[in-house]
């Protein structure tokens, strides 16, 4: 089950950090599942990096393959922005005289 509010997400992040800081034994699988679900639900990698407490984005990049649509979504965002800024100008076409 994914967190539904920012408070729940913050609590999970804080608990994960606390467990790592205290060197408690935490299953790496729990962290992998948490990160995987975030990425598969469209959370960007920089946010995942911050939530997991990674110092280097390279560590977070292992989850990048879980978002196969990230390139398509990026292009769609660019297309939407371009369409919003572009105005279509229709030029009158002179009628041919017969």
Spans of at least 5 consecutive residues whose pLDDT stays below 50 are none
Whole-number mean pLDDT:
78
From the helix content, strand content and strand pairing, which structural class follows? mainly alpha
What is the H/E order? Answer: HHHHH
Q: So what's the overall shape?
A: elongated
Q: What fraction strand?
A: under 5%
According to DSSP, the number of beta strands is: 0
Largest sheet: none
Tell me the count of domains: 1
DSSP summary: helix tally: 5
The helical percent reads 55-70%
Distance between the termini: 72 Å
Radius of gyration: 23 Å
Description of the structure:
- The structure is a single chain.
- By secondary structure, the protein is mainly α.
- The chain has one domain.
- Helix content is 58%, strand content 0%.
- The chain contains five helices and no strands.
- The longest helix has 16 residues.
- The model has no long low-confidence stretch (mean pLDDT 78).
Short description:
The chain is mainly α and 98 residues long. It contains 5 helices and no strands. The radius of gyration is 23 Å and the shape is elongated.
């Amino acid at each position: 089950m994914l967190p539904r509010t920012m408070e729940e997400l913050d609590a999970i992040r804080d608990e994960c950090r606390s467990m790592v800081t205290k060197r408690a034994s935490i299953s790496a699988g729990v962290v992998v599942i948490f990160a995987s679900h975030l990425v598969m639900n469209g959370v960007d990698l920089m946010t995942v990096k911050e939530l997991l407490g990674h110092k280097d984005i390279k560590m977070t990049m292992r989850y990048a393959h879980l978002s196969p649509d990230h390139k398509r979504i990026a292009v769609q965002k660019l297309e939407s922005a371009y369409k919003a800024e572009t105005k279509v100008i229709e030029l009158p076409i002179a009628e041919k005289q017969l």
